[in-house]
């Protein structure tokens, strides 16, 4: 079920009303409703994959109980290895099997060998990478004794299938979110109001910015040779904003929706395009995934404890795995590698934590140095985004090569490109002035109630009148 659909507009009020009516009885009845709602929400896309979600969740619940039943280190290691194999095995079959088989066949062909290997004709289940990592975090944390195994199975299944963030995150940690399912929740009107504001801002970014950008991005990347270099630059810029507004818009809707039900999800984006270097960008982009890799991959590999060059190795491994997590295509691997290579000089110069504050904090405008830093960081991410968006490595390299053309200094006169400009500037302006807050419409500091409602009305009107052709959320494919 899409957030930007009529079905969800009916689904949410029904679930919300029933959920708080059940609060008069016992919170576990609310968990039952969350579980049912999550399976309806997921099954709306394809009910056949509900069995996969149920199997994955049930197995990790069982692994957790087994870990809690023994203190023997050898047995615990066998159990956690079983959990890792189960979770990554499901990902491997559904997401990576054909990719690795195809790569093996292509490599063998270049060596003069003709391999005949069977591929699988399967559909990638929506959200499998997200709920797999969320469920796996539970068994890993139980293994590390950071969390006791949950006893009530409904609580755990509701945690995994919590519909606001089921399909595309944020990827919550069991240590943070699961305990909330084991205790009563109370309705907080202030949190609910701010949740609705955050949802509204998410819908604006998705429907007005991302969906409109998609129209031009799809056209330009489908046939880049038909356009001058200046239009291709605009296409790359539009994709940068498409993927940001699409994914952060989803996160805003998910986080705001969760607050309606008494849950606070972790922040997933913190205005990343106002970053002054790549390290800061990755602290602000897809925070739930980057922190997951930090906690469950980078630190177990040794982190930064074993010397500078081991740290470099670990950083590159994390970025390569991050790229592969995003999709079974070498374009994603190169995208991850590029970001890792951007990061390494900062690590070697001990500058990877140079910008832990908010840019131009307490000031209306940034200084010239900050502007140049943000511009350089954006341009680096722009090059990497071309690999992320292109269908093949060859297409990405061709796209970038074609930018070196005299037509780069011409005006991009492609029909319709300019009408998005005012909306992009509006979004960027709002997020700049809200960069010290949680989201673009957290405007409770504005004392005038009339002005606040005028802003809500204007944003809502833009959503209805200026929305692009409805598109599925990009990260559903991951």
What does this structure look like?
- The chain is mainly alpha-helical and 478 residues long.
- The protein folds into two domains: 6-184, no CATH class; 190-276 and 355-477, no CATH class.
- 63% of the residues lie in helices and 0% in strands.
- It is built from 17 helices and no strands.
- Helix 9 (229-260) crosses helix 14.
- The longest helix is centred in the N-terminal third of the chain and has 38 residues, at 73-110.
- The chain is globular, with a radius of gyration of 23 Å.
- The two termini are 16 Å apart.
- The mean pLDDT is 90.
Name some characteristics of this structure.
478 residues; mainly alpha; 0% strand; 2 domains
Indicate the mean pLDDT. Answer: 90
User: Strand tally, please?
Assistant: 0
How widely separated are the two ends? 16 Å
Give the SSE order as H and E letters. HHHHHHHHHHHHHHHHH
Which structural class matches the secondary elements?
mainly alpha
β-sheet strand percentage: under 5%
Helix content bin: 55-70%
């Amino acid at each position: 079920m899409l957030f930007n659909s009529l079905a969800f507009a009916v689904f949410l009020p029904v679930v919300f009303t029933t959920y708080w009516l059940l609060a008069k009885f016992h919170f576990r009845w609310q968990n039952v409703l969350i579980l049912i709602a999550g399976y309806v929400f997921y099954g709306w896309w394809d009910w056949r994959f509900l069995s996969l979600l149920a199997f994955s969740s049930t197995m990790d619940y069982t692994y957790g109980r087994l870990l809690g039943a023994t203190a023997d280190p050898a047995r615990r290691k066998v159990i956690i290895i079983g959990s890792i194999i189960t979770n990554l095995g499901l990902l491997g079959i559904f997401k990576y099997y054909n990719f690795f088989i195809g790569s093996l066949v292509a490599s063998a062909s270049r060596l003069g060998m003709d391999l005949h290997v069977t591929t699988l004709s399967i559909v990638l289940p929506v959200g499998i990478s997200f709920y797999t990592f969320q469920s796996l975090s539970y068994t890993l944390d139980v293994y590390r004794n950071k969390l006791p195994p949950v006893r009530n199975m409904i609580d755990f299944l509701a945690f995994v299938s919590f519909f606001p963030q089921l399909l595309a995150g944020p990827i919550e940690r069991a240590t943070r979110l699961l305990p909330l399912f084991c205790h009563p929740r109370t309705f907080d009107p202030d949190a609910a109001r701010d949740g609705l504001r955050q949802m509204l801002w998410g819908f604006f970014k998705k429907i007005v910015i991302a969906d409109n950008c998609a129209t031009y991005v799809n056209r330009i990347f489908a046939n880049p040779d038909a356009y001058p270099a200046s239009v291709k630059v605009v296409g790359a810029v539009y994709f940068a904003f498409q993927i940001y507004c699409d994914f952060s818009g989803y996160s805003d809707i998910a986080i705001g929706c969760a607050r309606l039900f008494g849950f606070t999800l972790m922040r997933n984006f913190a205005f990343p395009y106002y970053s002054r270097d790549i390290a800061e960008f990755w602290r602000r982009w897809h925070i739930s995934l980057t922190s997951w890799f930090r906690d469950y991959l980078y630190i177990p590999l040794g982190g930064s404890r074993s010397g500078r060059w081991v740290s470099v190795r670990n950083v590159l491994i994390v970025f390569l795995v991050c790229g592969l997590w995003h999709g079974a295509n070498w374009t994603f691997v190169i995208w991850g590698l590029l970001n890792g290579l951007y990061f390494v000089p900062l690590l070697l110069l001990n500058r990877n934590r140079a910008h832990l504050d908010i840019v131009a904090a307490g000031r209306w405008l940034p200084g010239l140095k900050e502007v140049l830093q943000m511009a350089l960081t954006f341009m680096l991410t722009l090059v990497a985004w071309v690999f992320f968006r292109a269908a093949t490595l060859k297409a990405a390299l061709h796209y970038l090569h074609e930018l070196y053309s005299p037509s780069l200094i011409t005006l991009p006169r492609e029909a319709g490109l300019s009408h998005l400009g005012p909306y992009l500037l509006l979004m960027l302006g709002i997020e700049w002035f809200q960069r010290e807050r949680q989201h673009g419409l957290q405007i409770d500091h504005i004392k005038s109630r009339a002005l606040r409602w005028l802003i809500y009305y204007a944003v809502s009107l833009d959503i209805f009148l200026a929305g692009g052709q409805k598109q599925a959320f990009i990260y559903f494919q991951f």
